[in-house]
Amino acid sequence: MAYAGLAESYALFNYYGVQPPREACPKANAAAMKAIEIDESLVEPHAALGWIKMSCDWDWPGSERQFKRALEINPNDGTARMWSAAYLIAMGRLDESVPEYKRALQAEPLSLVISSSLGLSLCLTRRYDQAMEQLQKTIDMDQSFVEAHPFLGLVYEQKAMFTEAISEFQQALSLSRGDTRFVSALGHAYAISGREKMAEESLVRLQEQGKQRYVAPYDIAVVYAGLKDIDQTFKYLDMACQDHSFWLIYFRTDPRFDAIRGDPRYRDLLRRMHLIS
Hints:
Blueprint: H1 2-16, H2 21-38, H3 43-55, H4 60-73, H5 78-90, H6 94-107, H7 112-124, H8 128-141, H9 148-158, H10 162-176, H11 180-192, H12 196-209, H13 217-226, H14 230-243, H15 264-272
């Protein structure tokens, strides 16, 4: 269980931008494999390995196998089912992801992470009103839970409720003490609401943060997408692809990139991620 816990922790370093994937992913993989070597019947390392193969390796068949094995061991493991739902989003199987998140939430009804992830899934399927309701429920459970605020901000942004979106992103920034993901989200909201100068200031902030800590290229691409600077957007998406930035698994469903889907470089990125042939 200790190795399984290490695997889960290192596997999430990519999600939270704690370390570059090239540093965190091998540690996560080694810990998961060690746990499975000791006890193959543990659900946690299989779920972690599914997450690693999805977010670090883009080994989609391998990821699916690990999630299936985890859920064979325990169909009611909330984390395994939640991560399996994220895999479905990456595969573009959005309509399947929502019920999978709901099953995860039934297994762990007080989980703020699962509750907010369901809200994100609803947002990515463009069910914005349902997403708003779900994310507000999460925040009502715990106002200080960081992750629900930027997801709600994304919903508000897509509904052109820019004042509310900016407020949610600012709350996430305050609660997280400057998480780069939320600097990026705020910069994008500034850009599409006509405050280009403030969006550019967000880019400067990300560059300054990059001198002190890891900043995922995907975060920078998000701001450039808001500014409609397509070449810079693809420059940083290319870097994100080389880096295996976590949030690329949501790239083809992230509404902030809807405007670039007709560009040939978009399909090239999906090919490089082995999502299309």
